[in-house]
Design a protein that fits this description.
This protein is an alpha/beta fold. About 30% of the residues lie in helices and about 20% in strands. Strand 14 and strand 15 form a beta hairpin. The protein is globular, with a radius of gyration of 21 Å. It starts with a strand and ends in a 10-residue tail after the last strand. Bound molecules: uridine-5'-diphosphate.
């Protein structure tokens, strides 16, 4: 029987992972370590399973005895306002957390890690294959997250090369769905909670920046197949995400239509906000053939609305997300909500140009 450890198992994705791990008959003991920084105790209130043990503490130093046959390291905030509020703690959770996971791994055991599409930074190729090395600013506002994820990838691949550690690294793209915090601050959860509270939906910049929104059940189905179900022997990195790319404004407008009278408010852009993001899933097609994201974002958003609605109905207090870091309004003379950014695709390399809004006078030389 396997001893399994999930670091970050009370979090949004971690708790869904725990549910799936508990369905396995070969898991004899499942330990969750979570410091409740962004995780929620309620996320695992339901499984009454005597194999499950929850340790509240940091993965870097929580008291744990013995070694584990499988370790899943998801202990990190993933929402920009959360990781930007505590960047050093973010680096520690990822990097020192991964060091600790290596120490806790039984020889011959498997260490799985959730890296991120953020390793591609603001990508200059679209879609992004795993071979793309990214365009990341190592001192920018997103660096604590991006670079610690990149550092852990380096650490794990070197552990594999020098010590033969079995690793499975995935790069997740914008996952959303039930069990996100009400004060999470990421796009879908923020838009939904704002609309449910009768507040304006806040779009940073003109909303033309794109993401590929993956519904949590689809993403977990892919992770489960890659990490244990299909017996895959491939270290990664593996893109796991939905490859339908949608501008942020379109998601905001979809949610707005679900809440008549709801306003969309454009705020200044977030500095270094990636302009686009879309996974190349060719490798995923070979490693876990036939896996696709079956839930369109519209349906995923509807399910997320229903989940937040139920959760907010029982809440006595609705917490606020940490303040996002946005460009000072003085630096953004006009937000140009009507402007459209046109994407030029040349041999897989994309460039963005501003296009005047329809009907605007042609620019003068
Ligand atoms: N975003 C937004 N309003 C919000 C939250 C996010 O316009 O209230 C934008 C954000 O600037 C980014 C996109 O939505 O372009 C996705 O942001 P999220 O925080 O969900 O994830 P990211 O991909 O930036 O890590």
């Amino acid at each position: 029987m396997k001893r399994v450890l999930v670091a970050g198992g009370l979090g949004f994705i971690g708790s869904h992972l725990v549910d799936r791990l508990l369905k396995r008959a070969d898991v004899g003991e499942l330990t969750v370590v979570d410091n409740l920084w962004t995780g929620l105790r309620d996320n695992l209130d339901h499984p009454a399973d005597e194999r499950l043990r929850i340790v509240i503490g940091d993965i870097e130093r929580a008291p744990l005895s013995g070694r584990f046959d499988e370790i899943y390291h998801l202990a990190s905030p993933a929402s920009p306002p959360w990781y930007m509020a505590e960047p050093l703690r973010t680096i520690s959770a990822n990097v020192l957390g991964a060091m600790r996971c290596l120490e806790l791994l039984e020889p011959g055991g498997q260490l799985a890690y959730t890296s991120t599409s953020e390793v591609y930074g603001d990508p200059l190729v679209s879609p992004q294959p795993e071979s793309y090395r990214g365009s990341v600013d190592c001192t920018g506002p997103r660096a604590a997250y991006d670079e610690s994820k990149r550092c852990v990838e380096a650490m794990l691949f070197e552990a594999r090369r020098t010590r033969g550690v079995r690793i499975k690294v995935v790069r997740l793209f914008n996952v959303f769905g039930p069990r996100t915090r009400m004060d999470d601050g990421r796009a879908v959860s923020n838009f939904v909670t704002q609309a449910l509270r009768g507040l304006p939906i806040t779009v940073y910049g003109d909303g033309s920046q794109t993401r590929s929104w993956g519904y949590v059940d689809d993403i977990l189905a892919g992770l489960e197949r890659y990490w244990w179900r299909d017996g895959v022997d491939y270290p990664g990195p593996l893109n796991v995400g939905n490859d339908r790319e949608i501008p942020v404004l379109q998601v905001a407008e979809y949610i707005q239509r679900r809440f008549p009278g709801c306003e969309i408010r454009h705020l200044p852009p977030a500095p270094h906000d990636p302009t686009n993001r879309r996974p190349d899933l060719a490798l995923a097609g070979q490693v876990i053939p036939g896996w696709t994201c079956a839930v369109p974002y519209e349906e995923g958003v509807d399910r997320t609305i229903a989940w937040f609605q139920a959760r907010m109905a029982g809440a006595t207090r609705i917490p606020e997300a940490p303040e996002p870091i946005l460009l000072p309004a003085a630096l953004v003379p006009e937000l140009r909500p009507a402007a459209r950014r046109r994407r030029r695709l040349t041999a897989g390399v994309i460039a963005w140009t501003d296009e005047p809004p329809p009907g605007a006078a042609p620019a003068r030389a």
